[in-house]
Amino acid sequence: MARRRVARRLTSLSVAYDVAAVRAQYPALADGRAWLDGAAGTQVPAAVIEAMSGVLAAGVGNQGGRFAASRRAGEIVAQARAAVADLVGVADPSGVVFGRSMTALTYRFAAGLSAGWRPGEEIVVTQLDHDANIRPWMQAAAAAGVRVRMAQLDPATGTLPADAVTGLITDATRLVAVTAASNLLGTIPDVPTIAAVARAAGALTYVDGVHHCPHARVDVTGLGADLYVTSAYKWAGPHLAAVIAPDPAVLAAIPAANLEPAPDTVPERFELGTNPFEALAGVTAAVDHLATLDGAATGDRRARLLRSRASAVGHEQRLCAVLVDGLRATPGVRLLGPGPQEARTPTVSFLVQGCAPVDVAVALDAAGVNAWHGHSYAWEATGALGIRDSGGALRLSINHYNDESDVERALAAVAALVRAKGREQLP
């Protein structure tokens, strides 16, 4: 009966979003597997591959030269800044800083911001966050003699109430580091409320948007973030990250150690060494690709992104509802995270009674499903949920290129594992 309910939900999905046309653009999907591991990194479309290889084939020089290959490099960087600005909804591309990864960028900004912290001041972090938005700040605070206050998630619901964060903010608070969406549970906290309270107290808000950006129509200004970080490899791009300041003056006030001859301008002074030009071309191509996901989208790139992101998010949410309903209907499965009335990204973590998460991942792999298991670097969250020392959880994450067959295959594999486990337990 439960499987029939799932099948009915799948057949009722909207046909407005042409997922078959989207999937055809991703070479990796030709292997026939269900790629439900996107929260750890998405695959890339052919347009991104071609853009990156095209830079290397045409030749590119370092920036600052008086020849064509060098000028191409400068254009590539400028285009990538403009593309990311369009993706997240900021007006000024000079607020976009690129770096190797979110972790590397956060350590860089923690070093710069903590240079101005003094004993007696405080910062706020949360249990819900990926460790990359916790540990760099805690380590910087310890070096500066600054107190760390950690907001607690609600382990019963997997949510982070806004007052759990705002209740810790005082006039001594200098920074609030909070995620816009949990990479483990899919939880979406009330960032605008948190950011407003932080701003009123004179504190900066550093928002981890790595898991948020792939599953939202992002408006960084509306979120209230002073600094928002995203990773392109989570939204069909290469392995490159960006910190975005809606107001570049925020960047200008943050010190950044760099080489003596390096530019001291914003945003360049935060970027160490030579830019990865081929990866930056891939970033632009990825943003352009995301703007085409809805074939009816028109207007400038930002307008096309808004419509395409809305269509993609709707597609993901419909598939997520089917996945959640199917897992809830499967005996022995315990879902973690937000309930049906809570906002969430299409990322679902769960436990199977009597099975270690690694064993569930192995069973799914045998069924042709790519799935993650473990703590997913949500170190504090898995500790608060009491699952960190027992192997974490099994995580399935839906992205814009997933389809109904991916969900069906995953649900069938979990159900088969539960049945097999039940037979093992029979006397």
The N- and C-terminal alpha carbons lie at a distance of: 27 Å
The amount of helix comes to 40-55%
What is the overall pLDDT average? 95
Shape: globular
Order of helices and strands: HHEHHEHEHEHEHEHEEHHHEEHEEHEH
- In percent, how much strand structure appears in the residues? 5-15%
- Going across the biggest sheet, name each strand in turn: 2-8-7-6-5-3-4
**Biggest sheet statistics:** 7 strands, mixed
CATH H level, superfamily name of the largest domain: Type I PLP-dependent aspartate aminotransferase-like (Major domain)
Number of helical stretches of at least 4 residues:
15
In the CATH scheme, the class of the largest domain would be Alpha Beta
Which class do the helix and strand fractions yield?
alpha/beta
How many strand units? 13
Low-pLDDT windows of residues: 1-15
Q: How much is the radius of gyration in Å?
A: 22 Å
At the fold tier of CATH, the topology name of the largest domain is Aspartate Aminotransferase, domain 2
Which architecture of the largest domain per CATH? 3-Layer(aba) Sandwich
When the domains are counted, the total is 2
Would you mind describing this structure in some detail?
By secondary structure, the chain is α/β, with parallel strands linked by helices. It has 2 domains: 2-45 and 306-422, Aspartate Aminotransferase, domain 1 (Alpha-Beta Complex); 49-290, 3-Layer(aba) Sandwich (Aspartate Aminotransferase, domain 2), CATH 3.40.640.10. The protein has helices spanning 2-11, 19-23, 46-58, 68-88, 102-114, 135-144, 162-166, 191-200, 220-223, 248-252, 277-290, 301-328, 357-366, 379-385, 404-425; strands at residues 34-35, 96-99, 122-126, 147-151, 173-179, 204-208, 227-231, 241-244, 333-335, 347-352, 369-370, 372-374, 393-397. Helix 8 links the parallel strand 5 (173-179) and strand 6. Helix 5 runs parallel beside helix 6. The longest helix has 28 residues, at 301-328. It is globular, with a radius of gyration of 22 Å. Mean pLDDT is 95; it is low at 1-15.
